[in-house]
Amino acid sequence: MDVAPRDGLGRRGFLRVACAAAVGSVAACAPGSREGSTPASPSPSATSSSPSRKPAAERLLPGDADWRLRRQGPDEAIEGYGDRASVLPGESFGLHVSTTEGRYRVTAYRMGWYGGTLARRVWRSGWMRGRDQGRGRLAGDTRTVRAGWRRSLSVSTEGWPEGAYLLRLDTERGHQRYVPLVVRSASGAGRTVLVHATPTWQAYNRWGGYSLYYGEDGRYESRSLAVSFDRPYDSTGMEKFLIHERPVVALAERLGLPLAYTTGGDLEAGDDVLTGASAVIFLGHDEYWTPGTRRTVTEARDAGANLAFLGANTCYRRVRMEEDGKLVVCYKTAVDRDPLVRTRPSLATTDFRAAPKADPESSLIGVYYDGYPVDAPFVVHEPRHWIFAGTGVRRGDAFAHLVGVEYDRVNTDVPTPRPLQILAHSPVTCVGRPSFADAAYYTAPGGAGVFASGTMRWAETLMARTRDLPRAHGIDARTRAFVTAATTNLLKGFAEGPAAERLPAPDDNVRRTYRA
Length: 516
What we know:
By secondary structure, the chain is an alpha/beta fold. The chain has twelve helices and 25 strands.
C-alpha cells in the first residue's frame, strides 16, 4: 500500500524540499536551458574540441537540449562503435560507422546536469561521406559477433572534460544512433568515483542477433559464450546507460561533488583510480565483474573508500576480459567448456557463488541476489538511519513498485559482513516463492561505509515520471522524491571520507529482523 510519510516534513513539505534538490524532477523543478543557449559549435574538423575547462565549473555551463534522439530509422540507416570503451582526457579513439545513406556527422555530448538539460555539446564533426559496412560476422565455438568494420575517423578528446559521453550519429535524412564513451579519470583521490558497467552493457547487447543471454533463434542454448566490443549496441545504442546510470550521474553532478569516472573494464585492467577515493558508486545494473575488478574494489573498501551499490544483482557473474579488454567471456552454466576451468579455476567464468572457487558477492556487498522477476513496494524498516534523514518516513512506510525487477536480500547462510543493519525489509513473491528484498548498510574495519539498495529500480527512480522515463514501472513522484532525498544523503555523506569515522555505526538488526 502506498503510504505517505506521517511525521517530519509531512507529505507536502517532504515533496517540496526533495523536489528542490531532486535531479529526477527535471521537468517540474528545474528551468531548462533554451535551445539557443547552447555554445557555438566548434570547428567541424574530425579532431576539433572545445577549450579545456576546470571540472568544478563544468556543471555550471549551459547545456544543449537537442542531445536526445528524435528519429532512429531502420537499424542499418546509421550505426557505429568506438574502438575503445574509455580513454583518458586528450587521448584519441577510432570511430567505426556504417550507414546506408550518403552523409553523416558526429556530435559528442557530455552527460551531466547542466541546469536540467542533462547534456552539453563539446564537439561536432563536419559532414562526412557514408559507407555501408555490412552486418558483421559470427565466428568460433563461442558464437561471437564482430562487426569488423573499417575505421571511419579518428577523434581526439583534447579539451574534453572527464565524464560519460554519448556520441550521436546523424544522417542527412535525420536518422540517429548513439555511441557511448567514458573519458575516465586518472585519479580518484579525494573524489567520488562513478563506475560505468561496460562489461554488463556488452553482456546484454544483442547486436547481430547474439548476447550472453540469447542466440539469433531466441534460445539460451544458442547464446554467445563471449561477446565483443567490436560492434554497435542494439536499439538506440545505449539503453543500459540511459536507464540505470545517467540518473545518478545527473544527481551527483547537480550536487557539485568532486567526481571521478571509470569503467568496470578499467578496474580490471589495474587502473589505480580508486587509490585514495572517498567513495565508489556502482550506478544501477553492474552484474558482470572480473575477479580483478572485485579484488580492486575490495582493496579500496579495506583502505577506507565508501561503497554504494545502487541496483541489485551486482557482482553476480564472474567474467574474463580478453583481447585487450575488447572481449567479455562468460560461459555461465556451460562452465565445463571454459578452457580455464581446470588449469585456472579462479578465472572460470560462471556465477561468483558457483563452483569452482565459489565466492558469493555478499561478502563484499552485504546482500545476496535472490531472484527475478518481482514488482513490490519498498518497505522502510529503520527510518531513523542517517540515509533517510529529512524524508519524514516512519517504519512500515511503503513505496509502490520500487522493488523490482531483480532484488537482493540478506542471507546469513552465505558470507555476510557484520555488524549489518537492514534499512528496508520488503516482502516479495518471486515465481510463487515468498521472500524479502533488503536494503542494507555495514561498515568495514578500515572505516568504509557500504550501502546496498537491494533493488534494481533504485537508480532509474531518480528520473521516474519525467520526460526521459515517463512510465518507469508505475513509480510515482512521491517515490522519486524519497529516493532522491536518500541518495542525496548517501552521496554527500560518503563524499566526506570513511563513514565510520563520522556517521552513526550500524545497529545490527539481522537476528531481530529474520528471527534467526
